[in-house]
Structure formats: structure tokens, C-alpha cells
Amino acid sequence: xxxxxxxxxxxxxxxxxxxxxxxxxxxxxxxxxxxxxxxxxxxxxxxxxxxxxxxxxxxxxxxxxxxxxxxxxxxxxxxxxxxxxxxxxxxxxxxxxxxxxxxxxxxxxxxxxxxxxxxxxxxxxxxxxxxxxxxxxxxxxxxxxxxxxxxxxxxxxxxxxxxxxxxxxxxxxxxxxxxxxxxxxxxxxxxxxxxxxxxxxxxxxxxxxxxxxxxxxxxxxxxxxxxxxxxxxxxxxxxxxxxxxxxxxxxxxxxxxxx
Length: 259
Fold this sequence. Notes:
Layout: H1 2-16, E1 20-23, H2 28-37, E2 42-48, H3 54-67, E3 70-75, H4 82-85, H5 91-107, E4 111-113, H6 127-134, H7 139-142, H8 147-156, H9 182-197, E5 204-208, E6 211-215, H10 221-226, H11 228-238, E7 242-245
Parallel strand pairs: 1-2, 1-4, 2-3, 6-7
Antiparallel strand pairs: 5-6
Helix pairs in contact: 5-6, 9-11
């Protein structure tokens, strides 16, 4: 693993000579990449839309400030785009194509990098097609660096969010084809905050019309049942009618496995 990261550092140092723009979401992948680039000529660029939570955007600002990296925020109202509003199965392709096109304009010919890792290449990630079309560089994928290796190395580097759960965009909480609205997205954001505030650090609230399907690790089921009255009251107060616990437990990208 160390050899991979030593090669990566040399590669990033070369990219940084001309200046590099990093698509920065605040997740562990892009955070480690930012940490590796913080002493280079790097600009962190964060995408802000209804698909991100206010907490996530605030976290990116905090991290960039702590690392002394300049940050730019690209804002766009994605639901003004009818394709994205209708949440097709290749939504991620259209979203990344839109945002990274805007980032390419901002970068004005400079290299652009993102935190796509090697594991992402073997699962359903339609957004990777957009990255390739726009010539975006994914250093972790290029050097065969996996998610677990990123977490392990981040821990070695003293990055305190090395074990942060993945936080994909809020649109992933809805079935493909479901119309997305600001109200629905904020409902999911609020619902997941309720769960996290009750101690469920790794969770998803998937919304199927008026039914909330909650995914947490099976190891947290006992804790969930002990807190079920608080969960039910809080979620119903927020506007959710039916509340269910998915017995299969937490599965990243579970909407992709629906037949």
C-alpha cells in the first residue's frame, strides 16, 4: 500500500506544478486527496445543490480552512433540469456532466482531479462515464487504490474522519423514476439528521412515496428498537406517514439492486 501512495504523491506533485483543481465533497476520498495536495497549487471546488445537505457544505468549508486550501463553490439548481428532476437510472451521469462541465470552465485548461477510487470501477457508477468524457483525472483509481486503503492511510496520516461513512447525494434515497422536489429532499435530510442525532452514524432513509425505509447496520437493530418510540415520533412529526426498518440492513446503493 505504501508504494501506491508514494507513487501517487510523485504524480500529484507533477500535476500541481501547473495548478490543479480538486472536486471536493468532504467525504474521506476527496478529503485524503485534499490532504495530499494541500501544500501544492490546489483549488478545492465544491458542488452545492439541493442534492447536498447544509451540514456537508459546512464541513467542506471547515476542512479547507483547516488545511489552508482555497475553496470555490459552484451552485446550481439541479431540479430546473427536467432530466435530473425525474431521477433516471443514469441520473449520476447527467449530474456529473453538468457540474464537471462548469468546473472545466472554471479550471480553464488546468488539470481537474476527483476522489473516485479503484472500487468504484467495479460497481454501478454512471457518473464515471461523464468524468472520462471530460478528461477528469481520478488518481486513486489510476493507482489501484481501494476504499479500505484510503481509510487505512488516512488514519495513518491523522485525518480524524478516516472512518466517516460514505455520504452519497440525497437523490440516491429515492427509487429511479420518482420525481424529485426540494421538499422531498429536505425531508430525507431532516430524517437522517434525526437518526444520526439518536446515535445511528451509518444510516439511510429511503423514501418510497409516504413510506420511509430505514437502513442501518444489522448490529444496530437492538439499539434501533430500543429507540423506536423516539424515532417514530420525530419522523412522523417531520411529515413521514409510514416508518419501516429494512431487515437486510444497511446496503450502499441498495436502489441499484431493485428489479
